[in-house]
Amino acid sequence: MRLSSARSSGRGRKCGGGMLKWIAAQLVGRAEKRIGVELDYARKISQTDIRLFMRYGKIFAFLAPNRNVPPDAYHTARLRGAISADCGTCVEAEINLAQAAGVSGEIINAVLGTSYSDLPDSLRAVAELADAVTAAHTDAADAREKIISAYGEAGLIEICFALNGAALLPGIKRSMGYATVCNLDTLRKLA
Fold this sequence. Notes:
By secondary structure, this protein is mainly α. It has helices spanning 2-9, 11-14, 17-35, 40-48, 50-63, 71-84, 88-100, 105-112, 121-135, 141-176, 184-188. The longest helix has 36 residues, at 141-176. The radius of gyration is 19 Å and the shape is globular. It starts with a helix and ends with a helix.
């Protein structure tokens, strides 16, 4: 009974709120170090409402881990998804994550461009599906079949999660006023 009265009065929510915000700030700081970009919008979410921050964190659980496709395919999907949303810091973060996963600079540069002739067929299919779905809002049946052939149904689903998830995050940033426009020529230099 005592617990429910604290909740109904609002006191339960405030208990530990400062500590939770501090922990959230530490989590954001660690993520910034890991991906190499500022997450100012995530910091704003965490300091505004810890419950919203926890919901935001579920997006990352949705995106990771990568268990069904090689890092090259997974990060091709994420890079093209972020590029379609035209957020420079998101693309920079995806480049950093791809490099940390061991994706070669040659593949990253090919994915950052729109000529996929330098990519193996399976990666070209991933890039084409990502572009069709996130940028053109169309279907790419041939690309999907090549992905299934290369990585199986579970691989296709994981790639779909990766490309759409990476396109979602810039939308959140842009809606909050934190997105930066991509300059792919500048970002290619990072790879």
